[in-house]
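Section: Multi-chain targets

For targets with more than one molecule, the full set of components is provided together so that the structure can be written out for the assembly as a whole rather than chain by chain. Components appear in the order listed by the source. The example entry contains two components.
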Amino acid sequence: MFSKPGSGPAVLRKVTQEASKVDPAKRRDFLKKGLVVAGGAIAGVQFASTLRAADNNLPPNLPEWSKSLGSGVITNPYGQPSPFESDIVRRTVPWLTADRIAAISFTPLAELDGIITPSGLVFERYHAGVPAINPDDYRLMLHGMVERPLIFTIDDLRRFPSTTVINFLECPANGGMEWRGAQMDALQFTHGMISCCEWTGVLLSTLLEEVGVKPEAQWILAEGSDGAHMSRSIPLEKALDDTLIVYAQNGEPLRPEQGYPVRIFNPGWEGNTSVKWLRRLEVGDEPWYHREETSKYTDLMADGRARKMSFVQEGNSVVTFPCPERPLKQKGRYELEGLAWSGKGKIKRVDVSFDGGVNWRQARLKGLVLPKALTRFSLDWTWDGSPAFIQSRSTDESGYVQPTFAQLREARGFSSIYHKNAIHTWRLHADGTVTNVQIS
Amino acid sequence: MSRSASVVYVVVFLTTVLAAMPARAEVGGYGIGTPASAEEVAGWDIDIRPDGKGLPPGSGSVEDGEMLYEEKCASCHGSFGEGVGRYPILAGGEGSLTAERPERTIGSYWPYASTLWDYIHRAMPFPQPQSLPDDEVYAITAYVLYLNDLVEDDFVLTPDNLASVEMPNKDGFFFDDRPDTRNMGCMENCKDPASIEIMSEPSIATMQNEEGVAVPAETAQGGEKIYQQACQMCHEAGVAGAPMTGDSAAWADRIALGRDKLVSSAIAGIGVMPPKGGHSQLSDADVASAVDFLIQRATQD
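Its structure, encoded as tokens over all components, is:
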């Protein structure tokens, strides 16, 4: 049976170990509190509810925190989540990469609400670790086929008119482990290479106007300043459309993991084009065909040829409740929830199936419905205890309908690695647990 | 207002307006940013294109490359480019792109030899990016091409002949032509319920082995965290002869030298290990905490 990452027996063991270091008189109290935290995170563990019922904090008793004073202001100058939510964290899958420097971690989608991903939970992908950059030493160079090459400081960039958008950011390898079959046993790992934030910066088109682009220019090379010096060729057409040079995320300076102090951001496009720790933009007349646009981030087809410059993240969706991390504990009324997104614009509709794609019901789009952003959908639903195959299918404003696995594999084979956006299936078992499955 | 006062007013007004105007308004109009000098651009402009544009002067032979490769590359990529652990395989895989398990190597997949020069120069060796002199980049590039049977053993790579190295898969790529699927969005009786079969379920348990779940960076503390960031890559796998983490036998003699000696070696670098493992941003105290973690791992149990 599935165990939630970081919870279950391991957490219980840790709590027990910690308890052994505590003064015996206090140990019983510590264990009880610890287990309430751990127990709350374990689905279907019977004694969790027993412990809660024995807790003196429940009605008609007056809770402990109601009888004393809490901590004062700026106890935490930079606020942190409740310690009771310490399980909502990014996680990695060690066997995916050779080391943690050039690796990936995943956003815990199951535990999040709304469409904004908290900055500290945005999935990470680096090729040479996170550099520590003093913003005073930061420079952005813009040169190549331009009238006047310029160097900008952070203060320079902040003097230009700024633009703020809410857009998703997705690694094209999101779900890539599933091409040959269902492999990962949690939503965090099947779909967690995605996030959605508010991004603030200056439009690249503004900077390009400032340097004056020569008529023969067609492409722009974006290059990072980390050890990988990650580089991607970006068509000038995109650069003049909605590409941003970003310095803020969710209202505060970019997080180091997201490219502090400055990254490029290409809305709707595969995440690696949004090069972090940006140091240089070169305008040219041809693409550079660097490693990350030839060896990697190209899509191998069944006939042995490969698609290149496959920038757009096409329409996708996934049900986030129920899912393996959030099983159903009893029969009855529920609001099914999920996320849909498309790199081509707004989500127009989402349909949900409980019978593996035989019949579909239209879901409701909740809250903000923005172009190239995560869009939350939901459906009121009564679970009668029957097993089900739960699926979601998005349609975007271009009319693109999310494909089935069969359709995707027919078009591309099994070895594409990137851009897997097939309709996903959760298998709901009679006991309320949920597992990942692929069906015909 | 007196005449003299109005003159002062006009002068002040003009001065204010002139000061507020951009110093340089020719191109963009904002006048923000500093001109980039040719020297500044030259220092950062490292990109190489398939036509060879951007290559600096220099040269390197397969013969020279072999020695350098063994020293700087083989610990991760293997002596024959076969890859160690999950580090990239560099050679082999010819004709495998239509196979069930395609092997995407430089020889079997990469369309341009320039990419190899660019990437080695840009990002390799992994722990010490941009540490190789240009001639060494030429030599290692030549040797990796040789490992892929793309050049002869007496080949010498120069700025003039890189673009002419023919890569087997150079015509193997096409521009994005999606959408390539067409789902009609059927709503009712879309398929026969009896036809639904389970095709696959997770076969690799990522979660069930609780102890195997990686410790999130946020929960790692002190020396362990530094270790994960800076040391683990080599010491976990014994890369380039690094004593492996937790290997009591390998560490016993070293620990016998005393903690101070270990810390100073880690800070200054020892053998092929660069100073601070190549992580110059770490403080000496950070390095010491990582050494303590390694000592603890080597001496526990």
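The first strand of chain B starts at residue 34 and ends at 35.
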